[in-house]
Amino acid sequence: MMNMDYPQVARDTLKGNASPPSFPPFIENRLQECDEQLFRPRKNKKPLVLGNRLPDRNSIMLQSNDYLAISGHPAIRQAQLDVLNTQSQEPVMSAVFLHENSEKHAFEREIAAFSGFESAIICQSGWAANVGLMQVIADSTTPVYIDFFTHMSLWEGIKASGATAYPFRHNDPSHLERLVREHGQGVVLVDSLYSTTGDISPLREVIGVATRYGCVSVVDESHSLGTHGKHGAGLVNECGLTDQVHFITASLAKAFAGRAGIICCSERFAKYYPYMAYPAIFSSALLRHEIAGLQATLAVIRQGDNRRKALREISRYFREGLAALGYNLASQSQIVAIEGGLESDTELLRDALEERNIFGSVFLAPATPKTRSLMRFSLHSGIRTDELDYVLKVCEEIRDDIGMWNWKSTKRRKA
Length: 415
Ligand SMILES: Cc1ncc(COP(=O)(O)O)c(C=O)c1O
Description:
By secondary structure, the protein is an alpha/beta fold. The chain has 2 domains: 43-68 and 305-402, Aspartate Aminotransferase, domain 1 (Alpha-Beta Complex); 74-302, Type I PLP-dependent aspartate aminotransferase-like (Major domain) (Aspartate Aminotransferase, domain 2, 3-Layer(aba) Sandwich). The protein has helices at residues 8-15, 25-39, 74-86, 103-115, 126-137, 152-161, 173-183, 203-212, 235-238, 267-272, 278-281, 288-302, 305-324, 343-355, 385-402; strands at 60-61, 119-123, 143-147, 164-168, 187-191, 216-220, 247-251, 261-265, 335-341, 358-359, 361-363, 373-378. Strands 2-8-7-6-5-3-4 form a 7-stranded mixed beta sheet, sandwiched between helices. Strands 9-12-11 form a 3-stranded antiparallel beta sheet. Helix 3 packs antiparallel against helix 12, helix 13 runs parallel beside helix 15 (385-402) and helix 14 (343-355) crosses helix 15. The longest helix is centred in the last third of the chain and has 20 residues, at 305-324. It is globular and about 60 Å long. It starts with 7 loop residues before the first helix and ends in a 13-residue tail after the last helix. The structure holds pyridoxal-5'-phosphate (PLP). The site of pyridoxal-5'-phosphate has 14 residues, from helix 5. Pyridoxal-5'-phosphate binds at residues 125-127, 130, 151, 153, 191, 195, 220, 222-223, 251, 253, 261.
């Protein structure tokens, strides 16, 4: 019961009514700027990434990164439940305090064997993996060569390391080579499969340049680990480059449908990393039931050749269908993006799809260049051909109704 002797402020706090202190201009201005740039320009006054309504049971959802449709798999759920039901105490602490025989280390050995690397380091997320790795391997004296479309977490990793970034043109190994010749030995960063456009890095050529000039190579395999390569071992493995690439990193929140990240590396590097990387020292490790879930997930993924085949086939079917409609796509994978261009055009596209009960993901700056916002469809192995046929039919309608233009094609807007 409320004590009426409390001062008004305390009473308001107990009721949850206290008004928060106001912000000084250096914060207020930033919030205003966000409002002006993201909220106000939109017809519904909501950021473009949010639609006008929520999907329902009949909606076609092409937003999830669960490419092999394994989220909620009974074996994965059970593995987590078994740990939660049997364990009384959970060590909640940083990975730096974990001894050699922990479940974390057992899973790291399994995932290293899976990817073909000597060792692996499990991290709290793909973001933590990339930022932690860059902080450890680079400093202000290290030139870092980065494909222009590489994921933001690696760009943030460069900032964390204090290194200088030398961006090279997307998927252009000869531009990379020119920069390396000019600035010297350093670190080369690419994604194996690009998360906005769905195209694949020319890994043999990129790693060839890195190797010739004695650079360290880091390949982010977030969107190819589990989906590509033998039993899902990834693209570096598929290209036979495992003994030339120093590190692969990956988010386990894509094909692994979990919440974690990994760095695959040499045994020697894995030994020292936990004592050097800030995310390992200053942020808590995964919990045991999460590790158990990931171990079960790895088993499902290894046995998932049928899922991978289905994903490959439906992805090809969808890409070919869109290409036949005149869409000009960069995609070579399960990520298929239609470029709207200006945000206002992508808004039209988003609304037209949503009206027809199709939900993709809008990508805009800072995830894309400002004038190249896009609608991304993430396919998964469980999607049916008749569902894709419906999406293709809608894309045909949209093309004619709103005059869609996209990647590399000229704008065709209805008069
Ligand atoms: C290529 C790539 N790397 C890293 C990440 C970050 O992964 P996480 O969501 O596990 O932090 C993502 C996620 O969007 C990604 O697409």
